[in-house]
Amino acid sequence: MIEVKRPKEGFLSVFAYRMAPKEELFTRGHRACQGCAAALGLRLAMKAAGRNTIVVNATGCMEIVSSPYPYTSWAVPWIHVAFENAAAVASGIESAIKVLKRKGRLDPSKKINVLVFAGDGGTADIGLQALSGMMARGHNVTYVCYDNEAYMNTGVQGSSATPYGAHTTTTPAGKVKFGQGYWKKNLPEIAVAHGIPYVATACPSYPLDLIRKVKRSFELEGPAYIHMFAVCPTGWGIPPAYAIKAGRLAAETGVFPLYEVEHGRYRLTLDFEKGLKPVEEYLKFQRRFRHLTPEMIKLIQERVSAEYTRLKIMEETTNRPDYRSIAGI
Amino acid sequence: MAKRRGIEVSIAIAEAAALAEVDVVSAYPITPQTHIVEHLAELVANGELNAEFITVESEHTAMSAALGASLAGARAFTSTSSQGLALMNEIVYIASSMRAPVVMALANRSLSAPISIWNDHSDVMNERDTGWISIFANNGQEAYDLTFMAFKIGEHPDVLLPVMINFDGFILTHVVEPIYMFDKEEVEGFLPPYHHPYVLDPERPVTHGPVGLPDIYTEAKKQQEEAIRNSRKVIDAVWKEFDERFGRRYNAVETYKADDAEVVLVTQGSVTEAAQVVVDEMRKQGRKWGVVEIRLWRPFPFEDLKKALCNGSIKCAVVLDRAISFGGPLGIVMSEVRAALYNLSDRPMVVGVTAGLGGRDIRFDEYVRMFELGEECLKEEKEPDRVIIVGLRE
Amino acid sequence: MKMKEKPKWYELLPGAVIDEPGNSVFYKTGDWKTLKPVVDKTKCIKCGTCWIFCPEYAYEKDEYGYFNPNYDYCKGCGICAVECPARCIKMEREED
Predict the structure, then answer these.
(1) What domains does chain B contain, in order, with CATH numbers?
(2) Best of B156, B160, B161, B206 to disrupt the C interface by mutation (most C CBs within 10 Å)?
(3) Domains in chain C, please, with CATH?
(4) Nearest to C9 among B198, B205, B222 (CB)
(5) Would you state the pLDDT for residue A297?
(6) Is the pTM of this model over 0.80?
(7) Residue A10: is its pLDDT beyond 50?
(8) ipTM beyond cut 0.95
(9) Are strands C59-61 and B349-354 parallel, antiparallel or unpaired?
């Protein structure tokens, strides 16, 4: 049995939350909906990133709610250019920092983080090419995709990150079609396939884990991809008060497993010794899933269990001493 | 002292960017632009140019990365053609709106379909209203000089706008011309270090690219329009300084034997010099022809053009368009020339022609035909609404 | 706030840049809510769960270590009431 060391998040004590950095760099007065987990995720990620950070935001919910002129919720330098090119803009900024440091126009000893926030549409669909280019070229950028599983900003249209069966305005549940017709694109694995130093999944329901992962991404040189689950009460049809609970249930049922891959080495950062809860517990209280048939739920359960098992196998394999010695990790 | 040497124009343009000590080059390969960025990549690879060369995965990213670099405090350069420019269109518009003084060398090429790698001006005309300063070069020397000066113009604190330098694909990019190349010492002090007043700097955080609700969008656009209008003063000043220091003069509208001409051909780009040869030749036969070139495309030189065309001698201006505006009057430049002269009582007749699309050569007799079309229209006292295509098989 | 809501065109910075970091704090979102959180301090354990999970960080720590909701920003989502481990936060109807 290979032993994997897992950081024990906030379960040690509820008081651990008070240890989180106090500085707020994503300021209130933003216009995110009530109970927006993406906005919370940004707030937490900015706590981890700190002041010496340049943020690049793709077009989307978080860009809209945080920058209606003349108001800005950004206490750090921030730039929004377009929908699909956040990774490209970040590549340019990172290159600029590199060359300006080399030429002595920026203090070479000063670390400046470049952090991207983009939604699932801006990442899985229209921005995938720019993201792939950024990761392949090895820019020292942390890319955080806040995944609320649809185009929420334009009114809940389906994206390739929309989960199977989910009702959206472009994948409506009707008499002959039953919501999203294909499986959610696995973005973290696409990132892993680029061979970048750090890939992680995170969820604002586990704030300390999220903060730790964003911090880790900046400690490692090179591109990092963090896929952040972002419960959207408005788009998913759940009461805003349950946003955090829903995120927790996603992790506990295995629908959204929390793990990280550092230099190819997998680690489930949250593992449930007693096994996963049935997916139905996660699906049943969301309006977007209320039309699901028992057969569809069964399909989803099989898929989730298989993926979780695969992750466990990957964790086991990539932590084996023989593999690690060959891979140099 | 500047040396005159035979060099491929693409290489010279790359050298102009290197002379400006660009910090970030982000570019994607596309014919006929490719030699420019290949040479820059080589300079970077050999340590001759201290810059970051980003091998982007598309032109859309090329412009996005250049924009990001520019607003992060780096002098940014890119180069493209045709489809590449069309793909980056979205960010071309945003770059000027966000006031990122990127410099782009544009090797003009036609747009698909049918796909054609050869020269015309459909790519730049497609980007006419994107808010960039847009300047045409007629030959390699001009392309070199104008590229170098573009940085000084765009980065000027009163301007802060991106600049595109147009030069004809293949016709210019792939030929070897004798070009005066500067030494670093020679241009010392001409181009100040890059400075943008609102860079992305954690010491002084700013928000770039906010949401513009209806309350603010109109004001933002007005401000941008004023900026490009005012850039004219800076353009003239930079060209004047260049002339004083290096002895080569550039004007927004250039005229050739137009003072006593009855018919002039209005041109942009490399056709200008060809038309000049035709004028020289035909003047021997007593034809009073001349050439007027619109070098500065944006901001449009209304006054200069009026002065050039309403000189008391010119009766007809034949405007040569190298692109088509489908379903309209066809001629884009022609329409603008007409609009510029519209309220003048004694304006010359404006006749539109188009030729040289998709790399089609314009022969000597076809240039002659263009001038003659102008003469015929004068005789018939009829100004055609639409452009006449010259060199078409009918 | 330094920035103007409706500036004239010549008052805008180039590219409509906002030169006042984090000024959204001047935009109060408190009037969005229909329910407001009320903390029962006799049960509060001062753990900060409400603070960490609030998307508006509406909870502010006082000198005694209690976290109190700032109703200027609280949008009334109710996350704090659900997440509070001491069950000391109740959502109550806003009185006009």
Answers:
(1) 3-246 (3.40.50.970), 253-389 (3.40.50.920)
(2) B206
(3) 29-93 (3.30.70.20)
(4) B222
(5) 98
(6) yes
(7) no
(8) yes
(9) unpaired
